[in-house]
Amino acid sequence: MPICKNCKYYDDKTKSGYKGYCTTYKEYVDPDSISWGCTRYEEGTGTSSGGCYLTSACVESKNLPDNCHELTVLRHFRDTYLISQKNGREEIQHYYATAPAIVEKINASSNSTDTWNEVYENMILPCVKYIEANELEKAHQLYKSYSLKLEKTYM
């Protein structure tokens, strides 16, 4: 299981039934309920976006805070809906395995600002609207198709 570079996991249960502790964010984590480690996995990797292209599009391109409405909605969607879907955990793990390379290649391109604006306008905003309208499967399908497009383009 990928985890933030600062998380420490132990074989036996620790405080309040949790299985590990993130030394950076000083929080106990339960990897059974959060498949990628601590709740701040993206931030724990040492970059502003942690290699997350959703965060990059919001924070680096739009100058939004890391806890902006869009990212909060998307993270809640990931942690509640997506993780509970068939192959949801695998999709999340795949995202965190491929996103850093995609972010790196976009940032190295001469039109990175345009690309981040496009990701924000064509993926993030529509997904957030679908989620807020409780059209969760539409949000999921758009996320998957847009992620595949980014993978084909940048990997």
Tell me what you see in this structure:
The structure is a single chain. The protein has helices at residues 53-61, 69-80, 88-108, 112-132, 136-154, and strands at residues 7-9, 20-22, 27-29. By secondary structure, the chain is mainly alpha-helical. Strands 1-2-3 form a three-stranded antiparallel sheet, with no helix packed on it. Helix 1 packs across helix 4 and helix 3 (88-108) packs across helix 5. It starts with 6 loop residues before the first strand and ends with a helix.
Features of this protein?
mainly alpha; single chain; disordered N terminus; 3-stranded antiparallel sheet; globular
Q: Summary?
A:
The chain is globular. The chain is mainly alpha-helical. Helix content is 53%, strand content 6%.
The quaternary state of the protein chains shown equals single chain
Count up the helices. 5
- Give unreliable regions as ranges: 1-18, 31-49
Main sheet: which strands, in order across?
1-2-3
The value of Rg in angstroms is 16 Å
Strand content: 5-15%
What portion of residues is helical? Answer: 40-55%
Termini Cα gap: 22 Å
Task: List SSEs in N-to-C order.
Answer: EEEHHHHH
Could you say which structural class the secondary elements and strand pairing correspond to? mainly alpha
Principal-axes geometry comes out as: globular
Number of strands: 3
Provide mean pLDDT, rounded: 75
How is the topology of this model organized?
Blueprint: E1 7-9, E2 20-22, E3 27-29, H1 53-61, H2 69-80, H3 88-108, H4 112-132, H5 136-154
Antiparallel strand pairs: 1-2, 2-3
